[in-house]
Amino acid sequence: MENPAQKNGAMDFAAAFAAALAAVLDEATGSSWPLEVIKTRSIPANEAVPIQFRLTAEGALRGECFIEFYEPQVAALLSMIVKQPVNGLAEEHKAFFAKLLSSVAERLGDSPLAEPGALKCRIERVSGLAFGGMFVVPVAMSQPAPEFQLLLYFGSQLLEALSPASAGRPANQDEESVAAPFNLKLVMDVELNVSLRFGRSQLPLREVLELASGSIIELDRMVDEPVELFLDGKLIARGEAVVVDGNYGLRVTEIPMPIASHLLN
Fold first, then answer.
1. Domain residue limits, the chain
2. What is the CATH class of 4-173?
3. Ramachandran class of 185: left when φ > 0, alpha when ψ lies in -120 to 50, beta otherwise
4. What is the pLDDT of residues 72-82, one digit of tens each?
5. Residue 113 DSSP symbol
6. Is the pTM of this model over 0.70?
7. Quick check: 136 and 151 in contact, CB under 8 A?
8. How far is CA 18 from the centre of its chain?
9. Largest CA-CA distance found in the chain, in angstroms, rounded
């Protein structure tokens, strides 16, 4: 990121989130959770299965960031809370963790980021997201769970809101105009390949080799969850699957961040 004001604002937001999360975990586990923002250009590698959440800010700050945890670390955390081993994350475990993060969102609204009552935040679970080109802030906890880490991915709207230079901008300014410079007009007729994702699943090689006509593969998404639209591996929209003249289609219900910002990244 080249904008120092936005970078500093993102770091302050991440620190406030870290403090709110630490306070909730202190209460839930009965032990101290020192948590810090990692100020480094290198992002810690983690090949574990991610658990992803979207944080939406409204009021004094508007925009989204995405939070990525990892299954083994979340399972270890939940084991401490429920006082019994959690060897794998079932749906009820993920729902419980999401409820825990809702308390974090409430505390974040009372943080020094804005005047009391001026900031509202909510956190909801999402899945299968790709974060290419977004500004990332790592957060790490060293105690009592070694190597516990998470990543915060900041959307362009929230980054802009976190910059002091945005304080005088009218609230109703068109978001798309911020993200889309004039040079995009030169490529407006270029055709791009987009794809829909209904869900995904992990299969051992044995089960892949045993696939045959009539085999059923269970996906990680409920039937009432929205499908996702991807452009070059990046999530650009969510919506409902529909049928148009005998073909599958998508009725868009949500655009997480201005689409033009994906092209700029």
1. 4-173, 182-264
2. alpha beta
3. alpha
4. 989 988 998 98
5. T
6. no
7. yes
8. 15
9. 61
